[in-house]
Amino acid sequence: MDEIAGQTLSSRKTVRRYLMHYQIPLRPPDRLILEPEKFGTRRIAGQLTSNPSELRAINQLKAFRKEGLSYRQIVEEMNRLNVPCRKKGAKWHVKTVFNVLKNWSASAQSLEQHGLTELYRQ
Q1: What is the pTM of this model?
Q2: According to the model, what pLDDT value does residue 113 have?
Q3: Could you give the residue ranges of the DSSP H alpha helices within the chain?
């Protein structure tokens, strides 16, 4: 799209609009857009599979929450126990814990769609 925009002296937005108007695909068929990885999963050779360390972290988060800990207390415990985040060396934050717990039901549905139901029922 950038190349077309440069050659026609048009903006990318205009090029995109015309490509869509004339139903010209924006990406070649071999460059499919993959579903983003959810926390608790990873992609190996293009296939969605479980991430055992993240699943353990999710189970720990759920257990702490069930015990009645606040998000702040959960963060402190996860960092104290050195439970790894998705990014290596990163620390847990309140927003991260909140989002993982909030989105886990959607992640569980995604795992179910990929036939990985045994992973989130641990």
Answers
A1: 0.59
A2: 61
A3: 2-8, 12-21, 52-66, 71-80, 94-113, 117-120
Quick one: how far is CA 90 from the chain centroid? 16
Does the structure show a pLDDT above 60 at 82?
yes
Cβ distance 101 to 107 under 8 Å? no
Confidence of residue 117 (pLDDT cuts 50, 70, 90): low
Name residue 48's beta-bridge partners.
43
Contact predicate 43/37, CB 8 Å: yes
Domain chopping of the chain, boundaries: 1-33, 34-120
φ and ψ of 48, to 5 deg: -80, 130
**How far apart are the C-alpha atoms of 78 and 64, rounded to whole Å?**
9
**Residues 6 or more apart in contact with residue 27 via CB below 8 angstroms:** 33
